Structures are given as C-alpha cells and as structure tokens.
Amino acid sequence: MESVVCELEGTLLNDKDAFSYFMLVSFEASGLVRFALLLTLWPMIRFLDMIGMKDASLKLMIFVAVAGVPKSELESVARAVLPKFYMDDLDMDTWRLFSNYDKRVVLTKTPKIMVERFVKEHLRADEVIGTELSFNRFGFATGFVRGDSNNTISERVANFFNNEAPTLVMDQLHPPNLANQNYNHQLLRPLPVIFHDGRLVKRPTPSTSLLILLWIPVGIILAIIRIAIGSILPFWAIPHISRLFGGKVIVKGKPPLPPSGENSGVLFVCTHRTLMDPVVLSSVLRRKIPAVTYSVSRLSEILSPIPTVRLTRTRDIDAEKIKRELSKGDLVVCPEGTTCREPFLLRFSGLFAELTDRIVPVAMNYRVGFFHATTARGWKGLDPIFFFMNPRPVYEVTFLNQLPVEATCSSGKSPHDVANYVQRILAATLGFECTNFTRKDKYRVLAGNDGTVSPTYSFVDQMVKVVRTFIQ
Asked: Which sequence ranges are marked TM in the entry (predicted)?
C-alpha cells in the first residue's frame, strides 16, 4: 500500500503562514477585542519567526486565539467557517498528487481541532498529525498545548506508520514533483464547500484585518444611515439615492407590470442569497411586495420596509396563507427555504407550483466586500446591519419570462417537476449548480445537529451573542 505524508501549510495550502486562520478563530469564536489583540501582536509574532523562534510564535498565536474559548465554539468554527477559507487557498495540483496514494496523512503546525474536519472530509485524508490543545474540566481551552504534542513530527509520523517509511513525503523542504503525474484531472476533485458560515468575506491577513478594524466604526454609522433612508424614502427613490451611499443594483430582463383588474398577483420565485432579496426586488419594482418568510428574527421583521408573511412549515396552513396573499396582489417566495452563499442552488420546495400558474422566476445575486449578510450560528437580527456595513454592496436582479402555461401544473406537470425546472433555469442564468441539498442539510452541516430545527435562540441568548460579537 502506497502512502503519502504531506504538510498542510505551504504545501497543500499555498500560504505557509497560519496567522490569518488564527485571526478567523479569534473573530468568529470570540469577538473584536481578541481579534484586535492578536493583530496588535502580529509584529512580535513576525519578529519571533525571523529570529528562528517559530515554536514560540506559534504558541503565542494559539494562546491569544483560543484561551478561554469553549471547545464547542472551536469545533463550530472548524466545522462552519474554516473549511471555506482552507479550500480557497488549496493548491489543486498538490492535492491531486496527494489523493493518488492509498494512505494519506496530513501534517499541520496548527491545532488539530482546527483542520481535522476539513482535511478528512474535503481532502479525503486518513489521518491528521497536529498540535493537540489542552482543555480544562469545564471544556474551555487553556491556551496551552498538551504535553504529548511536544513530540517531534518525525516521531509521531513514525509511530503512526509503525516505523515504516511512507512512500512519499511532501513539505516545504521536500516540495512535490508535479511533473509527469498520471492522474485524471477531471475525476479528481476535493469535496466542495457548499455550506459555510461566519461574517468575514475575505481571509483576514494582517492588512485585511487592519482594514476591517478601521472600517467597522464607519460601517456601523453608514449602516444606520442606509437603513434610516430606506425606511423613510419612497421605494421609487431608493435605487437612485442608494448610489450616493455606495450601493448599487443591477437590473436585467423585463419585470412584469403591476396586477390589474381581477387577475391574481404574480408569484416571484427568487433564488435566496441574503435576507435583503425581497426588499431589493421591491425597490426595483418600485412598490412594496409582501414576502414569505420562514425563520427571520422579529427585529428583521420590524426593520423590514415591506410586509412579511411568516409561514409555519405546516403545508396546508402555509398553502392557504400564500393563496390569500396572491388573491390580493403580487408575492415573493424563496423556495430554497434558506440562503446559500456559494454558487449552488438548494432544492426548491414544490409548494409554490401548486398554488398558481403565474410564476415569474427571478435570479438574485449579490457582492459584498467585508461582511456576509446571513448567518446560521449567530443572531439573525444583525443580518441586515452587517449587509449595510459593507462599503459597496452590489445586487444583481435578473427577471426571467413568466412561465408558459405548459410549464406549470395547469398542464398536468407535477409540482416537483415545475420546481426542478425553475431551479434549473435560475441556476443556468446565474452560472450556478443545482443540488438536492435542503435547509435541513445546511443546518446539519453548520450547526452540527440533526437538521430538524434551526439553531434559534432565546432573547437572552441572542443578546449574549451580540455582546460577544462586538465586545468580548
């Protein structure tokens, strides 16, 4: 059996410096104070590296990033946040060579708890050899490493292989030879990261982290101004005024005319990228269109400039609510049931197809610079605030033609077929991939539960989350 041992930093990953990943842990597991403290210590960390005290600099980063953090929080960040950033930094050619071997071992200087899930699930490694963190009896990280982590890497590799030498070793001292490798480039792909969480859009390198810290006070003020203006101004004026404050909405296609006469309203079926999808759609159409919601916070409903219709996830009750709203006029629905940040569409619920044949698909997409506008782990009430904190949020709204009658349930098609058809044409418009994943699958991955309920919190828990995000 052929085996390979490969270093993570600088070999499987392009960046050999793990500092930005400790910054991610600091921000997502604790908050701004720890994030700023670790950034302040970066010159000292670099100095220790330059004088050959890399072990000391690593231990300093570990202590500042994790001391006092619950193990459950570290596991949550490793599950829901870090894989996306590791994947973005992955050297694909090195991974293809790595994946050719029967037995695959990854070496890392960062704590094993941070990388094990990504390496085993997405890179298909068999084992990870890295630093083991120490936890007290209450489950909090002490900031120190366990005593057995002081063994040399070579000793731990030798123990794993029972003193037999691996077939290939790839690290910064022994870079991989990628020439003349016989592997199928099309078949060898790591498992993609479809679901991820956390607020930061970019990996927080020292320069990016400094920009984020300097921008946050400005961003909070800008978010308050943007939300206030959106609540006061008429909808027809919002697209024009938003440009003055850095926002931009790109509209493609021809939107339908408002309902008139005895015709029931149009059902706008949208891809679900952020909480702002229905609001942006209403601003483009220059009229307030009610939106179907599932699990948005009460604060988001209060701040919403458009009417919201909260569903129960009980099929008959929800169907009756949607029919009632359509009898009054247009309605917006996002049949994915939850947001997805990556270029994938989740499986569409077929409920919308049963209720009307006046269906207009709308492809929604967005671009932000610093902060994501949705989260599964934190308090959803902060989602619109984080969206408007971005320097230049951009939305793209593409109207597709209303579905012909022969493509709806009126022609005898099943709701499942109609939903799948709408999913496919929206994915093709955006250049996304269709999946069979659902809302339950998302929360199973991100929250680590069985996916039967979303990770909602009591009011007290929500306030604790807010305080931890901005103060701790």
From this structure: 20-45, 210-236
Burial class of 342 by CB neighbour count within 10 A (0 to 12, 13 to 18, 19+): middle
Collapsing DSSP to helix, strand or coil, 105 comes out as strand
pLDDT in tens, 177-224: 766 566 555 456 799 999 999 899 999 999 999 999 999 999 999 999
Reference 306, options 268, 337, 271, 351; nearest CA is 268
Nearest to 146 by CA among 138, 134, 163: 134
Domain boundaries, the chain: 3-170, 215-470
Instruction: Residue 423: count other Cβ atoms within 10 Å of its Cβ.
Output: 22
pLDDT digits (tens, 9 = 90+) for 267-292: 999 999 998 899 999 989 988 899 98
The whole-angstrom separation of Cα 300 and Cα 298 is 5
pTM equals 0.87
Domain 3-170: assigned CATH number: 3.40.50.1000
- DSSP assignment of 348-386 equals PPSHHHHH-S-EEEEEEEEE-SSB-S--SSS-GGGHHHH
Distances (CA, A) of 251 to 331, 366, 397: 19, 12, 5
* Token pair of 30 as six digits: 């604790």
Residue 74 CB partners (closer than 8 Å, separation 6+): 25, 29, 66, 113, 114, 133, 141
State which amino acid sits at residue 40: T
Residue 170 has pLDDT above 60, yes or no: yes
Q: For residue 456, what pLDDT band results from cuts at 50, 70 and 90?
A: very low
Query: Which residue do the tokens 């012909």 mark?
Result: 404
For the record, the structure tokens of 36 come out as: 């700023």
